[in-house]
Each structure stands twice: as C-alpha cells, then as structure tokens.
Design a protein that fits this description.
Elements lengths: L7 H19 L2 H8 L3 H7 L3 H14 L2 H9 L4 H22 L1 H13 L1 H24 L8 H11 L17 H16 L2
Length: about 190
C-alpha cells in the first residue's frame, strides 16, 4: 500500500499530537516530521517556518467552531433564541476543548499568545456572526440597536467569562451553567426592542 500523501492537514494533525506529547517549548519541526515518517524539509515545503506551522495549528484550532456558529448565525427564525443558541454553542465548544484535552488546551494558550493576529481574526469573525444575529433582530423588530457592530462587541465582552480561555478553570465549577443562563438573559433583555 503506497504511503498517504503529505498534506497540510496531515501535518497539522501530527503537529497537534507532537504538541500534546512535548508541549510548545520542546516540540520541533523535526519531531513532527519524525511522527509523519518524512524529512523536516518535507514539512517546510508546506509551512515555511516553525512559526508558520504553529500559527496554522492555532488558526485551525480557533476555526474549528466557526462552521457550527456560522450556521446558527445565518439560520432563519427569531433572533433572541438564535443568539442564545450561538452563545451556548460557543461556550460548549470552548468548555469541551478545555476539558477533553487539557494538555493540548494549555499548549494552545501558549500558541494563542504568540499569534495575536490569528486571535484578532478569530474574534473579528465571532463578533461579525453576533452582529449578523443582532442585525436580523433589528430588522425583525425584535432587538433595538443603532449600531449592530458595536452591540455585537458589547455582547462579546459581556459574555467573556464563558468563552475567554483565561476563565477556563471556572468552566467546570458548580453553578457555571446557571451563571451563564443569567448573563444570557440579561444580554437578551437589554437587546429587546
């Protein structure tokens, strides 16, 4: 059986495994190449530097929730339940990432710190999705907002405790779901026309 072709996706998957095993300080491109059974030059053909590889891994990790959230943002129906569903899906995704693979989550926190432009793009995408829901709510007469983009940023900031990795240690605590529900209700009440 011929070997699988070396693709960026395979390299990113192997990089995640290497980061999980060695952590960001010790993981090298040579380790990734070894895990794939190729030379490190083969990895560099797809990613020009270790920094580019680490940025791609970070971007892949942050983008994993975009598709589901985007589908909620553009779906039909009343805006309030969609916004609640979107916020719930984001919190669920972040909590799952932190709880299911804490070693990799810790590694990503290091990588996120190194790749602020990637994080800024991720946040801009998230806020744009919230803005789409707010705009829909305004058109339907459900929400009041003179500036949906600014309102979306305010919603992002108000729910920070439930998606910012700095709060990950709190996400498994008793009462966090109730606290999330209260914040969602407060945000939705504030948006009502």
């Amino acid at each position: 059986m011929p070997p699988e072709p070396l693709t960026p996706e395979r390299i990113l998957e192997a990089t995640e495994d290497v980061l999980r095993r060695f952590g960001p300080a010790k993981a090298t491109v040579v380790d990734v190449a070894r895990a794939l059974g190729v030379s490190h030059g083969s990895v560099y053909r797809h990613f020009g530097s270790k920094a580019a590889l680490r940025e791609a891994v970070t971007e892949r990790w942050l983008d994993q929730s975009h598709a589901l959230l985007s589908a909620v943002a553009v779906s039909e129906g009343p805006a309030a339940p969609r916004l609640r569903e979107w916020l719930t899906a984001l919190f669920t995704a972040k909590r799952r990432k932190a709880g299911d693979d804490p070693e990799l989550f810790a590694t990503y926190m290091v990588l996120v710190g190194e790749n602020s432009a990637t994080v800024e793009r991720h946040i801009a995408t998230m806020i744009a999705q919230i803005a789409a829901i707010v705009e829909s709510g305004v058109r339907q007469g459900e929400f009041a907002s003179d500036d949906p983009a600014a309102t979306a940023r305010a919603v992002w900031d108000a729910t920070n405790r439930f998606h910012d990795p700095a709060y990950a240690a709190e996400w498994g605590q008793e009462g966090i779901d109730a606290a999330f529900g209260v914040v969602c209700e407060l945000v939705l009440r504030g948006l009502r026309a």
